[in-house]
Amino acid sequence: MTDSPLAMPVVDAALEQRLVDRMARIEVMLAEHCKGRAQFVSEAATHLMMAGGKRFRPLLVLLAAEAGPDPDAAEVETAACVVELTHVASLYHDDVMDEADLRRGAATGNARWGNNVAILTGDFLFGRSSELTADLGPEAVLIQARTFTRLVEGQIMETVPPGPGEDPLAHYLDVVAGKTGSLIATSARYGAMFSGARPEVVEALSTYGEIVGSAFQLTDDILDIASESDASGKTPGTDLREGVPTLPVLMAQASTDPGDARLLSLLGRPLTDDAEHAEALELMRRHPAMDQARDHVLAEAARAKKLLEALDPGPVRTALESFADIVATRTS
């Protein structure tokens, strides 16, 4: 996405170095918070935390804090650890639900130690996150509780089809906002809040975080079909093969064009036959739903950037604007 050592482009050299230095401290803190009383607990909890990852959520906490008068407040770094511990905890549970064997190129917790240990390791990290949140005060506890509720509810609703009369696309977008957008929104909110940013800036950055976080997932949906190779990090058409509803698929399924009859017969079910999978992939790549999906993500990025008008012009706002653009147009 960027040649920067950070997960988003930061043009201002001084700001970039400040964030790099603080992220290095966050790494040390995260490693410490993963330690349990028993060596085995520490090993299991550290496994996915140290397997890589962009650390976008804690970075967003630090960057959003730059919009306030006290970006170096100790609470900011604590909050950065809270959101990453919560995120990594959720990955252990995700991998159990998905029966996944690999995460970030490493064996998943469930593949290495079994489902029970993976679930309990996720719970351990959620506990660590809750301990730190308590140090941030009752408002932070309430925000974290509401975020966790939305995240889990999004995960549950992902397994449930839309109800009678419910728009499948609206259902899916709500799932994405809960499962992915909610924690990124809280990342931006915490950073701005604990640095003393103005209330309108806190709200603007929180909404920005949810939009951009959701857009990142929606771009993944597009890349699953559009990528010609596994450069995007996974085999093209993986979601399509598994019958997973995604943004372009749901938009294609809304078509009333008789010429889409064959495509519609293929979508929405697992495509275990290689020939059918290849056919569906080719039909989707040529379908207007792909441009429709891209337009939707671009519009969301524009909406996120508009919110940033609440911030003073400068390198922080520029970095956040650039990131919204990159999320909307990325190719990997």
Automatic annotation (TrEMBL):
Pfam family for this entry, one: polyprenyl_synt
Gene Ontology MF terms in the entry: heptaprenyl diphosphate synthase activity; metal ion binding
Keywords: Magnesium, Metal-binding, Transferase
Gene Ontology biological-process annotations: isoprenoid biosynthetic process
PANTHER family: ALL TRANS-POLYPRENYL-DIPHOSPHATE SYNTHASE PDSS1, GERANYLGERANYL PYROPHOSPHATE SYNTHASE
EC assignment: 2.5.1.30
Alphabetized SUPFAM superfamilies for the sequence: Terpenoid synthases
Name by which UniProt lists this protein: Heptaprenyl diphosphate synthase
Cofactor(s) named in the record: Mg(2+)
Family: Belongs to the FPP/GGPP synthase family.
